[in-house]
Fold:
Amino acid sequence: MVYCRRNDLSFAFNSMKSLKQIKLPKALTGLGEGILSGSNVLEKVTFPDNATYIDHNALAISTLKGVDLPSTITKLGKDALRGVGFRTINVSQFTELGEGCLSETNITEVSLNSSVKEIPAEAFSGCNRLGSLTIPSTVETIGDEAFKNCKKLNNITFAGQVETIGKEAFSGCQKLTSVSINAVNIGESAFASCDLTSVEIANGAKSIGGWAFDGNHQLTSVTTPQTLEEIGSHAFNGWMVFQVGFYDTPFITNLPAEDGVKYIGSVAYLYTGGSDLKIKEGTLGIADNFLTNHRVEVNSYSSTTISDWTAPTSITLPSSVRIIGKQSFKENTNITTIDLPASLEKIGHQAFSGCSNLKGSITLPASTKLLGGYAFENTKITRVYYNAVEAENEGRIFPNTLTRVIIGEGVKNIPSGLFENLTNLARLQMPSTVESIGDGAFRSCSSLTTLDFPSALKEIGSYAFQGTTLSLISVYMNEPIALGENVFYECSAIPLLKVPNGSLAAYMANGSWSSQFQKIEQFDGASNTEAVNKTTTVSVSETVTEDTDLTGTMLGSVYVTLDTEDSGDGYNSTEGCLVINSTVSDEQLAATTADDADNLTVKNQFNGLIFEVPAGKGSVVIDCQTLGQNVIYIKIGANDPQQVEAASKQQLSVPYTVTEATRIYVYAAPTTGAAAKAQERDGVKAPRRANAYANTDAVKIYGLTIKVDENLTGIATPLATLTQKDGAYYTLDGRRLNGLPTQKGLYIVNRKKVVIK
Structure:
């Protein structure tokens, strides 16, 4: 009895050990799965005239010396004809090819049907008599091992661009000496263990996979396009006949060199040594293991040790770099700083790991999309400016030496686990734009004591601050948000929560929040400043004590925010003055004075005094002294800042005339320019340091008086153009004018006071 699974006789004659010939029924439309597999002595098959397909493993029989396939067959399943001994077959009749469908056959020519878009995995692997190959322009993908070990393949022509060449697609093609590749992505080991002497990669290529050309001993010429972005690990390695076996070095010796760096296309690849490493402009990527591959140049079957190779003490990356590869600078530099370009999108796994002299700060640009695990492991970095707007991270990135993190404006999400287990991280500055903090983002940061939560915050992930030692949290959300699971797990009751004015009741009533804190109180922000309505004097010595938190507070009608930690701003009780060592840059001033600036933005970006004056005239009198190159700047509304300088303690007056209630900003900056660029300032603000001291460049403010000479509060906006259509004009004593006013001053029109300028 014959077993049939389907009407195509699947497995019908499977493993018939004595079957030598078979004539299949005319009514059969296809050869089903495994129909003749395992028939080890089968020599001849007569096909039905109307068959359209040969299914999986149907004729995988090495004893077949040849078959006459009817032209109606257009589909081959997986391993359909694997191992069949024919030399010629019209491959162009097949519109669909399965994996391994013609592998290990004796075909000498492959002419693919124009409808074929994919050459599947192992489709022609082991075809040892195949000599040349043309890839039609319709083909988009060449699968893994598609032509692996085609030992006589000596010529490949690409009629068009292929999107992907799969893993080991042409590996082991030992007669292949040169190739011109037209593909966007070349997979791992795609041309490994061939006999290539030259490789040309066409324009449009973006990536070369790891070990792609491994084992090509004679390869001396590689041409790649400017579009190339990434070269995988060991992409051009060679097998060396030495006891050490594989060398982790590229061995191309005739590449162009510049400043000690040899390049393949626009990807930096080999560094021959020197203290100053400069990557040329236009380079898009730094290869994986870039400096790991540094000590040996290999040419064919010999190698040369570069005896005078010197680990670089400085590295200059061009503005064009988008990718820094895996382990690219690992343990092989003496650099102390690194500037990452604004174009950077990816930092590979352990890219700077073990650069033990790298210290100070690093800035991650906004364009960063991926941060490889342990990218800065075992460095001595203490500060990170994190500006990555949409980055993903592969676990922990930074070393345990990190003490400070400054999240840049525009960042909305702090990824999960990004700063986990950094036990020395003591200070965190978040901008007003942060909306979410990921799970475990700051877990086990046991030195973290203070936090500011921005008004935009909507989500805090589970265990985000587990194991921290928080003592003060200031929130800028007017309403409490939902907390993730165990956000403050293993934290003892936090001593103090500060909330915006008017929000105390909401937070007290929310058990999820109130249960976490020993005390909740309100704080004033810059938004609490109101226009003074009469002359007001603020004396520092009479208003400030050593307990006053000058990182953000109201002194009467004046809001004060100072950098009491980094720069030593604060109150000097001996002289009875505010000391401002920090400076404000043009960028910080713009952020502070923007229409949408909120309280946290002001606190993060501005160091100085803010108050508001009413519409009218008056003056600001500052009792002050300026030291060194730093002077006082006074910015009145949208006007350019005015400079005030006093070599000795004295009172200086700056007049104002405004047509509406207007904020005035008082701050310090260098004398070089009306709103000069600031000296470096970073970090979050902590409670003030007692008895602040003045640096060489500093300003001292002992007090100020806001003189209101003319208060026009409630008076209509001045008329830009006088017309008689406005109605009759009257003086303040009730006298009607004959026509329009001819002098500046206050008048009444339509029962309203107006100012005529």
Notes: DSSP finds five helices and 54 strands in the chain. The domain at 526-711 is CATH 2.60.120.260 (Jelly Rolls). Residues 1-5, 239-250, 296-303, 673-688 have pLDDT under 50 and may be disordered. The two ends are 112 Å apart (CA to CA).
